[in-house]
Amino acid sequence: MGKGSRNRKQRSPEPSSSTGPYFHGGVPGKEPRDLLLPATQLGFRYNYHALGAPYDPGWVYLTTDEGVASAYASRYLDGHGRAIPGDVHEVQPMDRPQVDPDYYLFPDIFLRCKKARIVRTVAHGVVLAKSAQAQLERPYVVWGSADLPVWDEDGLVLPSDQMAANGVTRQWTTMLRPWLDTADIDARGRLTIARRSDDMWRTILNVIPSLDRDCQIQANTRWRRHRSYLCITCGHHLDDSFEAALHQLGGDAVTLLASIHHWTIPNVVPELIKAARARNSSRWKWLQGTVTN
User: Fold this and answer.
1) In the prediction, which pLDDT does 38 show?
2) How far apart (Å, rounded) are the C-alpha atoms in residues 204 and 198?
3) How many Cβ atoms are within 10 Å of 82's Cβ, its own excluded?
4) How far is CA 234 from CA 20, 216, 237, 247, in A?
């Protein structure tokens, strides 16, 4: 098992009062009675799929939550840094477990010891999507306090106190796709996942599912001198191509996106149209050329 959460504070380790059972998600191919040893004793260069995750390779990490162990098993990297499906083991610590200081908010869940013996293998070759991992770990991914979860039960981001102080609202975070990683949105609500992407606007379309989903524009060409537009989904009439494009993209979502990032709507709309056309060109056949406001 490795590490990964948000707004943790490291503290001095202290003995755990937990009585188990204990689980470890990680190295595959082990048998009952095999020992689990720290990476430093095995001579491994430690790797882990978690942005900025702290980790002390001198310990074996345990949990009393089998679901958490499954999430870690699915993120296992071997000693050469290759991602392979890991196993979930029930283990017996060979020394008294300590509270993992990186997860001091959950002292009965996250633990560490110097070595552990495998009692049985609970699951082999665990493969979980990121959203499935997040669902298993949801109770323990918090904004610095055990009663401030990052996600609600549907996986939608709950603004942290810092986000709220910066004006980030639930109206914005509920527009984002479920189980968005904590590293993918910053304290001002901006989509860091998009800034890291090779195709920023395509990523934004993926992160905000409501963009270019609900409405469909049809051009009215009966009058050559005045081209008008109709949303065949909701019946809304629009006078120019920019208004029509904004309507099809979703005006509320575009407005919030621009506001959060301090962008202007006239600059955002053409970029979103390019990405939307690349995703589904048939939805934009009505639009000739580009739009300007």
Assistant:
1) 84
2) 11
3) 9
4) 57, 9, 9, 10
- CA-to-CA separations, 92 to 35, 57, 63, 229, in angstroms, rounded: 9, 19, 11, 69
CA separation (Å) from 226 to 28, 125, 185, 246?
Answer: 68, 63, 43, 19
d(CA 80, CA 169): 42
Instruction: Match 């970029």 to its residue by tokens.
Output: 271
Radius of gyration of the chain measured on its C-alpha atoms:
25
Across all residues in the chain, what is the average pLDDT?
88
Angle among Cα 157, 204, 229 to the nearest 5 degrees reads 115
State yes or no: pLDDT of 90 exceeds 50: yes
- Residue 205 parent element (H or E): helix 200-207
Q: Is 228 helix (H, G, I), strand (E, B) or coil?
A: strand
- How many Å apart are CA 204 and CA 21, to the nearest integer? 43
Q: Tell me the pairing of strands 116-126 and 86-93.
A: antiparallel
Q: Which amino acid is at 222?
A: R
Sign of the Cα torsion 40, 24, 123, 157 reads negative
Which residue carries 């082999």 as its tokens?
A: 124
